[in-house]
Amino acid sequence: MFKYLFLSFILLFEMSFAQTEKLKVLATTSMWADMARVIGSDFVDVETIVPIGSDPHLYEPIPSDVQKIIKADVILVNGLTFENWLVKLITNVSEKNKSILLTKNVTPISSIDHQGATDPHAWMDVENGILYSTEIYKALVRLDPMHEREYEFNFKTYKKQLEELHQYIISSIAKIPIEKRILITSHDAFQYYGKKYGLNLYSLLGISTDADVQSNDLIEINRIIKEKKVPAVFVESTINPKIMQGIQSENKIKIGGKLFADSLGDEHSEGSTYINMIKHNTDVIVSALSTDELFNSDSNNATNSKWIIPFLIVFYIVSIISLILINKK
Ligand SMILES: [Zn+2]
Question: Helix, strand or coil for residue 128?
């Protein structure tokens, strides 16, 4: 009797241990942390280094990041010079290479502004997002083969959702008149998105945010807005909106909305997941660039101006009827 009780106790202890012993996944930013949560579901514990809403280009590691790196079984990294701060940190704390390079099979875009530099923002193209999630899926199966079937099911379901999102973007961007497919943002995070989905990109800062705005770039952006009659510019969730607001008011156009590029939004925001973030960006861009209200930042005036033509028609008809009635008398 005592023997059975003892064995039951051991079994219970092992079960509870197995339940808590999840694969520890560390992601440099919230976008691939989200992908890992979707694919890993209940079998992974996911932590992120750069907090939601912070700028990964300017991130300075804190002591608890070192603990996270030591504890992690796997570290999900973008590469393409996105997390230069991490390379040194990993080399310092661990010789063991736990990093998974998510952009391994991505075709990188060269920076337009900086010769010799690659653009790190590959996740903005959803077909690249599928490549990122494929690398995550492969890493989870390799490190935790016991749950291969669950990972495979989650990955295939997620991949299908990403393929649908890709098609959604294509059909949404098609609604913007071709001459208005111009996206002006604070920093150059949308080249992959623009290249895949057919938007021309202009930004104030380069592919990183650690540079000052050059007056030449400002002049060039203002020239493009006037010449191409651009109806809106966009602010980003991780970047101070001041400069874009200045451009908006100087050109009397509108702020098209807030885009998510280098971080997800919090769980209650429109950018709470990778899929939500890209869908939200697309909806905001399509809505702002499809508008006919050019060069009119005052929405009340814009609404009022819509009534002028119908009002004149009614006024004209009433005048004619009145004249006919007067003549009859
Ligand atoms: Zn960026």
Answer: helix
